[in-house]
Amino acid sequence: MTSDTGVMLHEFLRSPMQVGAVAPSSRRLAAAVTAPVPEAGDPVVVELGPRTGAFTGLIQELLGGRGHHVAVEINPRLAESLGRRFPRVEVFNAKAAQLPRLLAACGHGTADVVISGLPWVSLPGRVQHETLCAVRDVLPVDGAFTTFGYVHTMRLAPARRFRRMLGVNFEEVVAGRTVWGNLPPAFVYHSRRPRDIKPIGRLYGPGGDGCKCATTAGAGRC
Fold first, then answer.
1. Does the model's pTM come out above 0.85?
2. I want to staple 29 with a disulfide (CB 3.0 to 4.6 A). Which of 82, 87, 118, 182 is the partner?
């Protein structure tokens, strides 16, 4: 068992809903998720839920010292470890929904790319909604958002709800091919063109898993 796998398993046993996985993501999944990182310029790349840094290391490789890399991790032990391993990354121990405030605190108004390793299926509907709103609010028109899901959970209600929320928040949502080399097998959502959304009310059920929004193109339900 690798050290990262041991750390992930330990933290999963402590907080299974927060961590959401028992092992780090594979290099193949990391390559698919980090595909939108620009090859030139000084981009602002945000990483949500980096955990042990399976995507972090590859993002740093792709940036090669360029731009700014901001990571937001809710688990304090994982955040501290990540900061030690990757001193060039600005690591915040905070909720992902606080992203706009965190970016402003480090002098960035927007992000060119947001990459997420969050366990969306484990999150309540309210948290899914608030986090996606935060992502949408920091991306410019040409910004990109990538995240992933596990094949075996894609038919579960929280996964279907999250897919609907992506469609409400982004004009273009494409699911990539299955990454069979990951354990468990996973696929990546590539989302672009964040919508201009005005909240007209948020209607939450007993479990906090519903909302209602309006876009400039009309009404949508997530």
1. no
2. 182
